[in-house]
Amino acid sequence: MTEEITAQLRANPEPWLEAYRRMLTIRHFEEQVDDLYRSARMPGLAHLYAGEEAVAVGVCMALRDDDYITSTHRGHGHCLAKGASVDRMFAELLGKEPGYCRGKGGSMHIADQERNNLGANAIVGGSAGIATGAAFSARRRGTDQVAVCFFGEGALGQGLLYEAMNMASLWRLPVIYVCENNLYNEYTSYRETTAGELTARPRAFGIPGQEVDGQDVLAVHAAAGQAVERARRGDGPSFLVCHTYRFYGHHVGDVDRAYRTREEERAWRDRRDPLRLLAGRLLEAGVDPARLERIEEEVVTEVRNGVDFALQAPYPDPSEVSQHVYA
Amino acid sequence: MTEEITAQLRANPEPWLEAYRRMLTIRHFEEQVDDLYRSARMPGLAHLYAGEEAVAVGVCMALRDDDYITSTHRGHGHCLAKGASVDRMFAELLGKEPGYCRGKGGSMHIADQERNNLGANAIVGGSAGIATGAAFSARRRGTDQVAVCFFGEGALGQGLLYEAMNMASLWRLPVIYVCENNLYNEYTSYRETTAGELTARPRAFGIPGQEVDGQDVLAVHAAAGQAVERARRGDGPSFLVCHTYRFYGHHVGDVDRAYRTREEERAWRDRRDPLRLLAGRLLEAGVDPARLERIEEEVVTEVRNGVDFALQAPYPDPSEVSQHVYA
Amino acid sequence: MREITLGQAIKEALAEELRRDPTVFVMGEDVAEAGTAFKVLKGLVEEFGPERVIDTPISEAGFTGIGLGAAMTGLRPVIDIMFGDFLTLVMDQLVNQAAKVHYMSGGKLKAPLVVRTTLGATRRSAAQHSQSLHAWLSHVPGLKVALPSTPYDAKGLLKTAIRDDNPVVVFEDKMNYQQRGLVPEGEYTIPFGVADVKRPGEDVTIVATSSMVVAALEAAELLAREGISAEVVDPRTTVPLDEETLIRSAVKTSRVIVVDEGYERYGVTAELASVITAGAFYHLDAPVRRIGAMHVPIPFSPVLEDLTVPNAAAIVEAARELCGRR
Amino acid sequence: MREITLGQAIKEALAEELRRDPTVFVMGEDVAEAGTAFKVLKGLVEEFGPERVIDTPISEAGFTGIGLGAAMTGLRPVIDIMFGDFLTLVMDQLVNQAAKVHYMSGGKLKAPLVVRTTLGATRRSAAQHSQSLHAWLSHVPGLKVALPSTPYDAKGLLKTAIRDDNPVVVFEDKMNYQQRGLVPEGEYTIPFGVADVKRPGEDVTIVATSSMVVAALEAAELLAREGISAEVVDPRTTVPLDEETLIRSAVKTSRVIVVDEGYERYGVTAELASVITAGAFYHLDAPVRRIGAMHVPIPFSPVLEDLTVPNAAAIVEAARELCGRR
Ligand SMILES: Cc1ncc(C[n+]2csc(CCOP(=O)(O)OP(=O)(O)O)c2C)c(N)n1
Ligand SMILES: Cc1ncc(C[n+]2csc(CCOP(=O)(O)OP(=O)(O)O)c2C)c(N)n1
Ligand SMILES: [Mg+2]
Ligand SMILES: [Mg+2]
Questions:
Q1: How far apart are CA A260 and CA D93, in angstroms?
Q2: Which ligand approaches the C-alpha of residue A55 most closely?
Q3: Which of A244, B269, C192, D79 is positioned for an S-S bond with D67, CB 3.0–4.6 A?
Q4: Can C295 be counted among the known catalytic residues?
Q5: Which residues line ligand 1 (CB under 6 A)?
Q6: Mean pLDDT in residue range B147-161
Q7: Is A129 on the interface with C (CB under 8 A)?
Q8: Between A274-284 and A14-38, two packed helices, what is the crossing angle to 10 degrees?
């Protein structure tokens, strides 16, 4: 496996350099969000995706621009991975007019219509129906688009997911359920909230379920690629459980994190950082370290410019408050 | 198996004669309900349990009086199997004051507090939480009561069931989920509405699932008995799928039944009638046919008296309309 | 003009829209082969096939969510929620998702979703199959709510709902599917937010919704015999609400009764009464009279159930009192 | 009397009831170790253990149903629904099940269930975490609804809720947990259906609920400086509603403003305005003024969000108009 992947990387490192760039963009973006919060320049809270970058990027790399995704309260990573631009995302997080949702959605509701990101959702599990419906729609309209439903393992507690999976399976819809198991439902270990085996859940509805190392973007991409192919072929839904970890607290204000140990956090950061893992592999495959450094410089600049743009951007006009209630 | 059961019957036929009596009571009760409907003496509709008698009776025979059950829109059988009396049930179905719910609940909401029947439920799947909560309560109060949740296979479409099963499994609650698979969700075959294998659903939550011949009261009783023992021991929930068939339409007004064939109905009635199957076994085991006849006579009398009682019973006083809104 | 039933009018509306627009589809429990539990859509699947008239599992939240996802991506679903009481199961999908997606996305996403469901008691179906929960949906910005009371309105409003780019909940009175009325052969739609004066009058205004329009007209007929001329106004949609027509009638008659089959407390009658009072206060002889369902779960027993629902007699009595005739 | 926060008052109420009655327990997401997302119950699990302060999966419908089953069989659950917006997920369990079981069973079954949840915006949490949905629950017979606005009321009403044999939904203003107020050391309860005059006055009545009581008191203070004496009345429970106190105040002042953070249309302000108008019509100088949340999904952007919520300035302006001061 490792050899095969090294060979793949060596043969053509470009897509993985692009993956690296996207993952790094997410990382810097999230660090910047944390900073905005700490310096009281951002209204409200945000749930950071740092640590989980390989999942969103690995999956979205397997998608086309016109494929659909639905996202969660921890949604910045999905949005960036699907191709959103940093500046308009920051603007949204600050409630500014050039934001993706004109500042009306905020962190928990970012949507990006141009790239068929149907939006983050602040109701845990709330998008299971929407993603499945997008898949239904693709099929009815005769396209070969697929839909990806991202959700945290906490959403396994929501009945809606099972209702949607049952119909997806019955109707062989082109939808991929991506469960991001970062071990915690807010402040509670998923082991205290989740009975049985995770992959048995989709299997109960006749949907193949597969466990994936969520810190390994190549592994995620490979599994997602198979699921996407299957969906496009018309063979129906798949379910991936990606094991991952959030490096920050549940949200930016969750700083003491009494529910988990500093050792556990350190272990993941030190040994399971998806960026370091990918960088290591790229170097191993012979990529010039200077390229990685250049990417990092570019990303840092992009994020810095993005946040400056957002900070200077105007708020929406007060009259906007009653616009867009109805289409 | 057959020999073992025959031996069991021969050794002590009395409990099975009692089972026969209960099943026959349900059958005659339901035929009488159908008659009340056809002769326009009953308000509204009712969902008849005829054909499924072995499930309710087999399960309830494994329960104590103080064990809990929750029931469904097709609930007359559960109520009678748990020990309710025919006259007060008819009174309820006619909206009369001596009815179990003073006529306020009707067919779809019959409850029998004295025997811990927490009530029929007209929301498909609506009692999954209630039954699980009763089991939670039994455990918290330190009793060894168990709770049985009866539901049709249509309720597998409701997300609530999975939420409840997850917690029942996590907390090892003494609850038994009894899925009555009578092949139809109203007018649609369950095969068109249910993906995957039925018993995989509970297994996905770490709950053992077992398929049972729902027309064989001895088989149902044996499976239920094991589940009850397990629950009382503190070993947690179980799930039984009982394969069965409703001899009448979805409700009393469903007379053309275009969604299934007359052949299928005849096959079940002729070869899979739970009453005939039990009667055959009892006779095989040496029970005097006269005893069965006597039981039938008694049941017929009881049902006749019950319906007469109900027809003559008074309606609730109009002032009752605003009583019992609050306790 | 032909006379057809309300049920037929609904089926016609759906058939016409299914024919006109390939993105329209119908989804719900037993809508295809069985043509719904009320048999209203019988025959639809034969013309449009099971790809466009779709039977679902008993998963109201799930298929409403699927409908929403389809609506956000180019289709126009008509979702069937068999009984209005089951709206309890889809409130998240309707309220937190469908109603808000256009606004939350800054106007970029749209959810042209129609939910058809029922209201109304007296079917001897007891507490979980008899509620009229349209006040809840009317409370939610982003949703529109239509309440047809005649075959003509049912057809026209449903067609408008399907063509609307917003989520619309259409409540049908389940006791009313057999009601007959005149419906033109040709195509027509009815704009939302336009009340209909079902009967003109001078002495008292009866604002009635859905199932209560029939009762109001009956009451108006009885009142006419006593020399009281009642105007019956049907708002037809609670959101958007035609405040102007309601207020104009109130100003004219100085006496107003509002009748709705939902629970009276914190219900539709409260809003309509408040809007009318705010707009016609100085013209009113007396406070607006509200008549809604009794504040009790709907009982099964017919002798009790019938007490809980407003009827013509109650309206007549209120009108007499308002007009000083007792 | 000590001054404590509203959050502390709630925790005290729970601790006292947990101590007093072994059948009481608390259940919800992150209520134990984390002491809720708002940290309000921090420390409770240490005293009562994880058998009585129970963390659940993210399954609102499921654990509300489990709470209901427990309530029907001898326990007194206090269920925590983290944000009022998630009530959308439990409407079936609350409305079709808990609210009706006593009635449907002819008075034989009981559901002494408490649901604690939140209302209120301005936390920059956007459309799915900012709603005030208490009008929905107030519409449903069989439920009681409490809306504490001070630490004193929060403690007393919650204790009453726990001892009530009916399902009670308690809405807490999530922006208010840090608000301080006087709370006696000793045990007390507050009966439902008794409004509290938070400030007596003569010229205008401001009926305010929950989060809006603070705004109303602020407005009253500002109005006093202009020589307008405002009476602030807090109903404290919408069901049962103390109609008498509301009407009495209206009769006294002849001018009424009703303020509630829920949506104005088809919301609580409509019912309160209707009840007051019905009871005090001939004493009123002008129609009751309603002030509720703007009829839009709550936007994220602070500059927009703040426009949607009623505030003291809006109340002052309405009062001035009513009193002919502009
Ligand atoms: C229906 C619902 N219940 C509760 C919440 C509050 N909440 C927000 S995030 C969260 C934990 C989600 O855990 P998980 O799904 O594992 O996602 P993660 O945060 O770990 O990415 C909870 C309980 C919510 N937003 N929606
Ligand atoms: C939530 C909900 N959805 C729909 C219905 C309407 N309905 C009543 S019975 C029924 C079919 C139930 O099928 P199943 O669970 O298999 O029970 P059976 O009638 O076969 O005993 C349906 C759809 C309902 N009562 N509740
Ligand atoms: Mg998680
Ligand atoms: Mg069935």
A1: 34
A2: 1
A3: D79
A4: no
A5: A 47, 73-74, 122-124, 152-155, 180, 182, 184-186, 250; D 29, 58, 60, 82, 86, 89
A6: 98
A7: yes
A8: 150
Q: What are the average pLDDT values for consecutive 10-residue runs of chain D, which has 326 residues?
A: 96 98 98 95 98 98 98 98 98 98 98 98 96 98 98 98 98 96 97 98 98 98 98 98 98 98 98 98 98 98 98 98 89
- Residue labelled with tokens 């095989």: B284
Q: Is the pLDDT of residue B2 over 70?
A: no
Place of tokens 């951002």: A42
Using the Cβ of C192 and the Cβ atoms of chain A, whether some distance falls under 8 Å is answered with no
Q: Is B236 exposed, middle or buried (0-12, 13-18, 19+ CB in 10 A)?
A: buried
Count CB-CB contacts under 10 A for residue D213.
28
Please answer whether residues B186 and A175 qualify as being in contact, where contact means their C-beta atoms are separated by less than 8 angstroms.
no
Tokens of A311: 């900070």
A interface toward B at CB cutoff 8 Å?
A: 156-163, 165-167, 169-170, 192-197, 200-201, 203-207
Q: Which atom of ligand 1 is nearest to the CA of D29?
A: 23
Tell which phi-psi region holds residue A248, choosing left (phi > 0), alpha (psi between -120 and 50) or beta. beta
Integer Cα distance of A308 and B213 in angstroms: 69
Nearest CA-CA partner of B265 in B184, B163, B177, B193: B184
Distance in Å, alpha carbon of B312 to nearest chain D alpha carbon: 20
Q: Which of D29, D129, D261, D305 is catalytic?
A: D129
Q: Are C121 and C132 spatial neighbours (Cβ–Cβ below 8 Å)?
A: yes
Question: CB of A187 within 8 Å of any CB in chain D?
Answer: yes
Distance in angstroms (rounded) separating the CA atoms of residues C194 and A45: 43
Give the C-alpha separation, C147 to C242, whole Å.
13
Ligand 2 neighbours, Cβ below 6 Å, are B 47, 73-74, 122-124, 152-155, 180, 182, 184-186, 250; C 29, 58, 60, 82, 86, 89
Tell me if A237 sits within 8 A of A231, measured CB to CB: yes
**Residue A291 carries which side chain, given as an amino acid letter?**
R
Set out the domains of chain D in order of their start, with CATH numbers. Answer: 2-183 (3.40.50.970), 196-322 (3.40.50.920)
pLDDT at B135 over 70: yes
pLDDT of residue A1: 55
Check whether the bond before C240 is cis (ω within 30° of 0).
yes
Nearest residue in B to A170, CA atom: B195
pTM (two decimals): 0.98
The secondary structure of residue A112, as a DSSP letter, is B
CB C82 within 8 A of CB C36: yes
CA torsion D9→D11→D14→D17, rounded to 10°? -60
Mean pLDDT of chain A: 97
Tokens of D19: 């101590």
Return the residue matching tokens 């072995």.
B54
Alpha helices in A171-236 (DSSP H): 200-203, 217-233
Phi, psi of C117, rounded to the nearest 5 degrees: -150, -175
pLDDT band at C204 (very low <50, low <70, confident <90, very high): very high
C-beta atoms of D281 and C268 within 8 A: no
The CATH class, in words, for A2-312 is alpha beta
**Active-site residue flag, C60:** yes
DSSP-based three-state secondary structure for A13: coil
pLDDT tens across C220-247, in order? 999 999 999 999 999 999 999 999 999 9
Nearest bound ligand to the CA of residue D129: 1
Are the beta carbons of D154 and D210 closer than 8 angstroms? no
Question: Under 8 Å CB-to-CB from D13, ≥6 apart: which residues?
Answer: D154, D155, D156, D158, D159, D162
| Contact indicator for B152, B124 with CB cutoff of 8 Å | yes
- Cα–Cα dist C207/B227, whole Å: 58
